[in-house]
Task: structure prediction
Amino acid sequence: MEQEHPALHYVQIDEKRCTGCVLCMKACPVKAIRVRDRKVAQIVGGCIDCGECIRVCPQGAIKAITTGSDPSKLSRYTIISASPVLYAQFGEEVMPNEVLLALRKRFKYIYDQAYIHELYNVAVELHIKENRGKEGAVRPLISPICPVVNRLIGYRFPSLLKHIIPIVTPREIAARELKRRLYCDRVFDTTEFGVYHITPCSAKMVSINDPMFLKASYLDGALGINEVYELIAKNLRDLEEDIILHRSSGVGIGWGVSGGEIAGLEDGSFLAVSGLSETIRYLEKIEMGLFEDIEYFEFRACLEGCIGGPLTVADRYQAKRTVAKFVRMFGQEKRLKYAQAKKAYQDGWFFSESKKIPIAAKHHKLSLSDALARQEKIEEVLRRLPGKECGLCGSPDCRTFSEDVADGLVGEDRCILLNLEKKR
Amino acid sequence: MPHLTKNYPIKARDYLKAGEVSIQVQGLLKSIGFTPELIRRVSLCAYEAEMNVVMHGGDGELTLDVDTDRVSLEFRDGGPGIEDIGLALQEGYSTASEEAREMGFGAGMGLPNIQKNSDSLEILSEKGKGTDVKIGFIA
Result:
């Protein structure tokens, strides 16, 4: 019953480089990869663009598509909004402002998105307060920041979609405000050059093309940190300008590491979880109705948080150390006027006109009776299989293989070990 | 009519794997496509009952029975049994070990929670001979 997923994937496998080993198929947390007839890996199911396959492929055959174009071809007037994860890529000695100045040698308009994170923290705090004690309030609430987690919830935990708070993400708020401001100041028509987000995340293009809670993204594209790394490293060697572009405190910068988002929240019970397998474990338990004592979950699909994103350059643990240093250096006090942020919240600045929630997968709809019969067949096949979880059949594990057999996608004879047993 | 029966072994005192069986039950019911509300009720009860076997029971087993209109769970363990079932059904009553409490379990909400979230509950237990808990749900 598995269907070819119609949406475009931003994680793609290069068939010429793929040798047909099973590593990506085994690593895929949603079991969306198969290695079938053509002996190369194929994405068949509901890919959530997490990038786990990118990390494990020894051939470098899997890539995340960001802008789809060469960053060197972007106009000098492209507006750049940078994730603070970028600041942690050049070691402890290179300051955030220097990174932004290095970017400014290439692009005229550079924005420190970390500042919006601090405003966003205030919005979430106010939202949690509103939720408290409300009749029929959803608990726990879930952070909408990680696009992979949003897609994971859409595919595998749709009953939890209502837990995701409907606040527009900082990257989108930053892009919206940049467009408004530059347009109002009549600097130029922003439709011409666009706002690009520098990101550690392989799923950013998905969230730009199909954003949560927005009709359309304010961003025009994403650049991987790995795509701009060399440019910045080169420009860092001779910085001429001396202006201040970095505005955030340690709170906004701290967001790069797991726990950074909730560190900016005051007064409440919050929990940060990172890594896909742990995230899935927690979502399963939240779906059972556990963890109602927690008010807000910060989930990040990448281990240790966004500094572990597939498009980063620096090692995640060294980047973590760099972030920790910046958090100390720039302090734990938000650099904003609370009353102003609160008014912005009340005026709806953090919300969108749209309530659109992308549900990535159209699940097959069988009648309960047919679905139960299918499950019976799956269990029956599974009982016959040797349970070695080898993946030689081209499905990631014995259970998924049983599902593929029950759905008529492959024959049971594809199990090599079962065939060997029969010959004996 | 299609009908599914499946057994899951549960190991006593194995806190590392505790909860695993109920997560498997949850996954199975999800792939069949029951309503989220039913799945939440069944998996929550499964979780509480599984934790009871892990905390108090000897090694045990869950039998899951699924029809299109009902789901039932039967937990059997060879543990010490429940001395006073009426008392065990009271909120906050707990005989959990220090070890279990240190891990955040044993708040005495297990059986009351099951009673609240199921459509039928039957407990058979004899001191020294183990416990049999049957939990039914109408789909």
